[in-house]
Amino acid sequence: MYLKNAWYVAAWTHELGEELAERTILGTSILLYRKGNGEAVAIGNLCPHRFAPLHMGRRIGDTVQCNYHGMVFGESGHCVLNPHRGGVISPAMKVAAYPVLERNGAIWIWMGEANAADEAMLPDFDCYSAPGFKTIRGMMDVAANYELIADNLLDLTHAEFLHDGALSSEAITISKLETLEAGSTIWANRWCPNGDAAPVWSQIQERVMGVDPAKPIDHWLYMRWDAPGHLLLDVGITEPGNPREEGAWVFTGHHLTPVSPTRTLYYWTVVRNHGVDDPEIEAFWQGSIDYAFAVQDKPMIEAQQAMIGDRQVEDLNPVAIPADLAGAKARRMLSRLRTAEAKGEGRPPLGGAALHDLLAKTAKSANPVLPVV
Ligand code: FES
Ligand SMILES: [Fe+2]
């Protein structure tokens, strides 16, 4: 059901301190904390004795003592102290230990076999700390399957209808979807020249670019998907024919961490190149995203999940339109990767570099970025 040999966001860096924290990821309860030297630790949260949650325990140095009968576990997951008579530590007295990485403001956890953990499988989100850009972050608890959220992000034509008053734009609906696949990475790119800006973007047009919001703009939306649910939208507006670099440029990151088949922790970012020191612009983006995600997307996706129940989307024979293509490709890729994992086979590498290089080369160009392979 889940891809296990993959990195998931377990928390934002700033959320994790020395205190014990719990996150349920892929149906497994995980204990998270930082050691005295600041390194993050992730181990199973289920005490192997009588199954008390270890996050209700206490720190003893870099170890954790179960608060029920006092067994102590270290970062390797092994019991390091049995306080009971005899003090015998059997090999079964252990919990799982998970590889973690801390990068780009996130704690990433590898949920598969520890010896298969591979940094090369971590998609590139270096834009979160790119010079000249400012990142804001949030998290939303969504009562829906993570693939439904990926479907939403890979088909941005929903903006015109669901995001009324915020991101609604006919220019997106009528634009051509260009999909691209490289390795296990999929892109869904839309280039919307000379159209009316969506309400949120028309405010940026006026407040940041100093352009009459009634004037048309060129709008680009390049969405990159990586398994199991990491998406990066390269999006912005510029005056028609002007280089994208001269416009208002934003990256939005989306990290989908399944809690269960019908619940997802949705970690998001907004990375902008404008008003980086301006608290009003910061508040504007924070408010716009909170509204678009929490007030518009979330209730619809949760309602969709409630209608679907525990059935699989594929089994319901959904009617398809061209805008579904990228979402369908992502679902197929994920299914192929899960099958390969179940058979113990390898998986294709990430293909993120291809578009990244192209975007870097074309930052000064007004031309759309179209498929590169
Ligand atoms: S349940 Fe943890 S020591 Fe007994
Ligand atoms: Fe949306």
Please give the structural blueprint.
Elements: E1 7-12, E2 21-25, E3 28-34, E4 40-44, E5 58-60, E6 63-65, E7 72-73, E8 79-81, E9 97-98, E10 100-103, E11 106-110, E12 134-142, H1 146-154, H2 159-162, H3 170-174, E13 177-182, E14 185-195, H4 199-207, E15 217-226, E16 230-238, E17 248-260, E18 263-272, H5 279-308, H6 325-342, H7 352-361
Antiparallel strand pairs: 1-11, 2-3, 3-4, 4-9, 5-6, 6-7, 7-8, 10-11, 12-18, 13-14, 14-15, 15-16, 16-17, 17-18
Helix pairs in contact: 1-6
The structure holds FE2/S2 (inorganic) cluster and fe (ii) ion (FE2).
The site of FE2/S2 (inorganic) cluster has 9 residues, from loops.
Q: What keyword list fits this structure?
A:
alpha+beta, binds FE2/S2 (inorganic) cluster, binds fe (ii) ion, Naphthalene 1,2-dioxygenase Alpha Subunit, Chain A, domain 1, seven-stranded antiparallel beta sheet, 2 domains
From the 3D coordinates, which CATH architecture of the largest domain would you assign?
Alpha-Beta Complex
* Strand proportion: 25-35%
The topology string of helices and strands comes to: EEEEEEEEEEEEHHHEEHEEEEHHH
Mean pLDDT: 94
Distance between the termini: 31 Å
Spatial strand arrangement across the major sheet: 12-18-17-16-15-14-13
Instruction: Provide the structure class.
Output: alpha+beta
Q: How many strands in all? A: 18
State Rg. 22 Å
Shape: elongated
Ligand set: FE2/S2 (inorganic) cluster, fe (ii) ion
